[in-house]
Design a protein that fits this description.
GO molecular function, one term: ferrochelatase activity
Order of helices and strands: EHHHEHEHEHEHHEHEHEHHH
Number of strands: 8
Family: Belongs to the ferrochelatase family.
Strand order of the largest sheet: 2-1-3-4
Distance between the termini: 21 Å
Largest sheet: 4 strands, parallel
Structural class: alpha/beta
Shape: globular
Keywords: Heme biosynthesis, Iron, Lyase, Membrane, Mitochondrion, Mitochondrion inner membrane, Porphyrin biosynthesis
Strand content: 5-15%
Pfam families: Ferrochelatase
Number of helices: 13
Oligomer: single chain
Function: Catalyzes the ferrous insertion into protoporphyrin IX.
């Protein structure tokens, strides 16, 4: 089961997508969330529909995930014949195919053994944690007899295959700059931000994103100046910074002309890359005189990335043989976490493997 946030495939699906997103306390904690979320979603829908209209009238994330899944199935059958045949399912948190619909389909197909494979390389309670909490909640309802045995791939921020494909995409993009300026291009690694209330709770996301960046720069032999920045802030509460937009403007005001944006926490193209980075931030860069703003290509269905995914799954299956269904990191809750749901989901997955 490939788990991700998802995105509306059509403009008509935007409001439902936003309603689910703003209703999720794991992602965006809002007072009186049950009542406020639908109102916020309705108000934001026209603006977000305009953004999706500019990138093809919908999110391409489902299409990319389907391509990744199909390639992963074939490669897993080749490199792990003893566990074949393999079948990939998709479970999005806020857009179809939703987690509950995927579980229902898996039960119809007679699935007995499944891996919950997060497509967020770096773990956050707001992303992978939310998806796993939803998997637990829906499984309790749809599969109360626990006919499906689950194991979890909850993070892979420094996997060699992931670092290799990020590095290759950066190197390819740097070649589009003239040789004279190539090693002066500023690499801006951009990841989705988190509310500071989540960061201060002890969420490991920011440190794991930083670990990915460091590993990539190490493989690049620290060839270029770089910074880690954060995008997609929503609402008035404090979020992890510096914000990507502010960093671009600040660097432009200091005379930088060439910046390469690297989406370091996203594996597939969606609105945060195609609209926010490519269109919105490109416009901001122009206003401050940046003439060489470019973006490294997303991983999408790059064969190197598919190979990395397959090796992650194969390695996981080897660990499962030794009884390691869950990682020690997943079992450790955030130091200041007060949510019963986080412990209940962990209890569910631990029970499922006793």
């Amino acid at each position: 089961m490939l788990m991700n946030l998802g995105g509306p495939s059509t403009l008509d699906g935007v409001q439902d997508f936003l309603t689910r997103l703003f209703s999720d306390p794991d992602l965006i904690p809002i007072p009186f969330q049950k009542f406020v979320a639908p109102i916020i979603a309705k108000r934001r829908t026209p603006k977000i529909q305009e953004q999706y209209a500019k990138i093809g009238d919908g999110s391409p994330i489902l299409s990319w995930t389907q391509k990744q899944g199909s390639a992963l199935e074939k490669l897993m059958d080749e490199i792990s014949p003893l566990s074949a045949p393999h079948k990939v399912y998709i479970a999005f948190r806020y857009a179809p195919p939703l987690t509950e619909d995927t579980i229902i389909q898996m039960k119809k197909d007679g699935v007995k053994r499944a891996i919950a494979f997060t497509q967020y390389p770096q773990y956050s309670c707001s992303t992978t944690g939310s998806s796993l909490n939803e998997l637990w909640r829906k499984s309790e309802i749809i599969d109360p007899e626990s006919s499906i045995t689950w194991s979890i791939i909850d993070r892979w921020p420094t996997h060699p295959g992931l670092i290799e494909v990020f590095t290759k995409h950066i190197e390819k993009s740097l070649l589009t700059y003239s040789k004279e300026i190539r090693d002066k291009v500023v690499l801006l690694f951009s990841a989705h931000s988190l509310p500071m209330v989540v960061v201060n709770r002890g969420d490991p996301y920011t440190s794991e994103v930083a670990a990915t960046v460091h590993a990539v720069m190490e493989k690049l032999k620290f060839s270029n100046p770089y910074r880690l920045v954060w995008q997609s802030q929503v609402g008035p509460q404090p979020w992890q910074g510096p914000q990507t937009r502010d960093a671009i403007i600040g660097l432009g005001e200091k005379g930088e002309k060439n910046i390469l944006l690297v989406p370091i926490a996203f594996t597939s193209d969606h609105i945060e890359t195609l609209f926010e980075l490519d269109l919105e931030y490109a416009h901001e860069a122009e206003k401050v005189g940046i003439t060489g703003l470019k973006r490294a290509e997303s991983l999408n269905d790059d064969p190197i990335f598919i190979n990395a995914m397959a090796n992650i799954v194969k390695d996981h299956l080897e660990k499962v043989k030794s009884g390691n269904f869950l990682s020690n990191q997943y079992l450790l809750r955030c130091p200041k976490c007060k949510k019963d749901s986080c412990q209940q989901s962990r209890n569910f997955f631990k029970r499922a493997n006793i």
